[in-house]
Design brief:
globular; mainly alpha; 11 helices
């Protein structure tokens, strides 16, 4: 884990250093200064819908594995997970936290862990598929030849997910929930675009948003920073909008992502009830698990 964290920090620092050396700190400052309280409020509201979609997806996968999980438990757990993933370098400790917590409550940590893994994988599969479809339909900076290759890879990913996954009955709901989550993140990115003041239509901004979101999911970032900024600079330059604007937009998006995850920090401080295998409810703090 330490080696992975060191690699993530090094990659993130290297990407940001290269971008700053090339574009200066101006775009970063522009992104930060563009953020206003009303825009943060909108981003937090969008994050509520996005989190609910993610929690619903998790519930569907967990129930398909014969685990008990309802939305009243899943939504706060997802908020905590998002905050920990954003605040801690590894980027997955929030998912580990909710998997272990759910496992302790349900009496089977292994199956709860598998539910979280399958839920995250399913979400990324849907995200990649949606991105490829949008890039193929709407104008984008990605060459057609690249789209063909990526489409073939996506078909393979879908086949593997369907063959080895344990959630075939839950797939319809998982797909709907995942689309909702992706569109929520994309809406936040479009909000960042307009907050910074980039003049671009929604049709042109959506492909850029999905491209950057795919890059942000790469396991070489710290709190989402790093590959996201590199992808934003490349995508905006390829679209003729300028790399500086891409970096400013990505910076604003990063602030919105942090703001949207902050409720998780508050929930981590709230008392939590843990269900023992015997079924007895005991008081406990989230810091204990």
């Amino acid at each position: 884990m330490r080696i992975r964290v060191a690699i993530q920090v090094a990659v993130t620092a290297a990407i940001l250093a290269v971008l700053v050396a090339r574009l200066g700190v101006g775009p970063l400052l522009t992104g930060l200064r563009s953020v206003t309280l009303p825009s943060i409020a909108i981003a937090v509201a969008i994050a509520v819908a996005t989190t609910v979609c993610a929690a619903w997806r998790w519930c569907l996968v967990a129930r398909s594995l014969d685990l008990t999980l309802d939305m009243r438990e899943a939504v706060p757990a997802c908020y905590k997970s998002q905050f920990l993933n954003t605040a801690l370098p590894a980027g997955v400790l929030g998912d580990v936290h909710r998997a272990i917590r759910h496992g302790l409550e349900s009496g089977t940590v292994a199956r709860a862990g598998r539910a979280v893994v399958e839920e995250r994988v399913a979400g990324q599969v849907v995200q990649i598929c949606l991105t490829v479809i949008v890039l193929a339909v709407l104008p984008s900076p990605v060459p057609s030849a690249v789209l063909v290759v990526v489409s073939i890879v996506v078909v393979g990913i879908i086949a593997a997910a369907w063959r080895f996954g344990h959630i075939p009955d839950a797939w319809p709901g998982v797909v709907v929930a995942s689309i909702g989550a992706v569109l929520g993140y994309a809406a936040t990115f479009v909000l960042a675009v307009h907050t910074v003041g980039v003049t671009v239509s929604f049709v042109d901004a959506l492909p850029l948003a999905l491209l950057v979101l795919v890059a942000a999911a790469l396991p070489f970032n710290v709190g989402g920073w790093g590959p996201r900024e590199g992808a934003a600079v490349w995508a905006f330059e390829a679209a003729g909008l300028g790399g500086a604007q891409g970096l400013a937009v990505s910076t604003a998006f990063g602030v919105f992502a942090i703001a949207g995850a902050l409720p998780g920090a508050i929930m981590l401080l709230m008392p939590h009830r843990r269900l023992k295998e015997s079924g007895e409810l005991v008081g406990g703090s989230s810091a204990h698990g």
